[in-house]
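Re: How this chain folds, sequence and tokenised backbone to follow
Notation: Tokens come from a learned vocabulary of local backbone shapes, not from coordinates.
Start of record: The labelled sequence and token lines come straight after this line.
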Amino acid sequence: MNLFSRSWTALLTTAAELSDEDLAQPSGCAGWLVRDLVCHLVIDAQDVLITLVTPADEEPTRDAVTYWEVSATPPTGDDPLDALTVRLAAAYEEPWLLRFHLDDVGSAAGRAAELADPTLRVSTRDEVLTVGDYLSAYVLEWTLHHLDLVAYLPNAAGPPAAGLARSRALLERIARAEFPVSFSDRDALLIGTGRRVPTVTERAELGELAAKLPLVLG
């Protein structure tokens, strides 16, 4: 849970420091500008708040690994929900309003996570997880979106090293295989989730794992 807070705080801090010009730059998410991704983070924060106050009595049906729906098809940005996010982001006519909304809802989500009992069970997407597993899954969510946020902003701060390492470990558990030790945590995540195409040398190093990639998480 501490790593959830560290990853989320780092992402919120980077988003808060974005200029109006930064918000108009492309992000690492296909079809989205940085402002669209920031709007998505507002929705993510709302989802965290909703989930943490949706208790469940049933036994867990998912954990931090099986929480993810995995496909091999990267998003194109044409999905109706993706398009809705773009329209919502555009509705913030003043960029500071979008930053303010993320800080407001995001700070609340962070506080709720810190106060939550990791052993409690919660319901989301018609599945049941412990709070600890749910927040662990979101370390990967925050880390990947932090990489998306700064993909074309070389001067913006990236995700913390601990979050990158934990996210790589979780992705390896999802893949049921380890990435080459020569891969940095950042490159393992970018290549593993289809955010970057591996070079010829990297593909050779991946060996049989290359056939499983990308792991598109939803």
Summary: The chain is about 55% helix and 5% strand. The longest strand covers residues 121-124. The first helix runs from residue 2 to 16.
